[in-house]
Amino acid sequence: MFTAAAAALLVALALALTRACLGPTVFDRALAANTVGTIAVLLLAVIGFLTGRPEFLDLAIVYGLLNVVGTIAVLKYFQYGSLGDPGNADDGGQR
Amino acid sequence: MYALSSILVLFAFWLLLSGYFTVFLMTAGAASAIGVVLLARRMELVDHEGHPIRLSWRVFTYWPWLFKEIAKSAWDVSRIIINPRLPISPTLVRARTSQKSTVGVVTYANSITLTPGTISVEVRRGEILVHALTREGADSLLEGEMDRQVTRFEGLS
Amino acid sequence: MSVLIDIASWVCLVAGGIFCVIGTVGLLRMPDFYTRMHAASVTDTLGAGLMLIGLVLQAGPTLVAVKLLIIGLLIFFTSPTATHALAKAGLTRGVKPLLAEDRSQPSKR
Lengths: 95, 157, 109
What we know:
The structure holds three protein chains of three kinds. By secondary structure, chain B is of the alpha+beta class. In chain B, 59% of the residues lie in helices and 12% in strands. Chain B has two domains: 2-42; 58-154, no CATH class. Chain B is elongated. Chain C is built from three helices and one strand, in the order αααβ. Classes of the chains: A mainly alpha, B alpha+beta, C mainly alpha.
């Protein structure tokens, strides 16, 4: 049954990758990359159960953390043009 | 005060993740927890916003409601996706916010985004610009049920 | 009893997988960037949630279940932040949403 779940996740991964390749704008690609990250976290967890090795869950946690940091960093780069920019002054402080 | 409870929470997190209870690993965990809190102090992040103890017990009444809403609207969006005609009517609306604190507004905006079918695009003072997948979704958001729930979650203070 | 839990966890796993696939199918079918984000959030919430519930039921009350819950909380807190950052970045860089109805100009109600 874990095999079925892993297969479904792989299909979803392939579809998300297709969008990442097709995506007309860079934001489509970033969105698809974020979705790929979420699915990869789930896939890591399922693989951990499939092979009976719970260490994979730690990998999944680390991958989830890296995924969100990476997405935010890429978006910040494309929104402001640099990674060191503090954001615009009027509303950047709130988020 | 906040620093102390942050250290305790971080140390508990370390223990949960490691699962080993040897002297060396526990000392290392305590040292990392203290180090992280010291770094956070230098960045001036240790305050009531970074560590909202005050809200912790009300989570248990708000989250079940939120999960129910997420499940309902995720089901609706899934039906739209697998419908061959793709019946979407994207709408931009402004939703008013009645929360006083920043934490409350962020909770509201995150709840809107977390619910499939509505995404908070921009947060301004007193209102949130929301992109909704269908006209019905935008209308049900404007009825303000979620706004009231979040305000109750935020507390009567 | 354990058979019941097994069945429940299988149902959750399969349903989660189906919702993940539905979300990514939507990612391919939707016409523009903002509507695609709605489809992706189905994967992030219901797909991931159901799948993690299924795995927790399979794990039982152990440290593994706690780690799965931590993963769930991580996705639960970070996915709206990432989605909001995407939407805001898109709007700032002038990606125009495809709209059936635009009620954003006058601050109504």
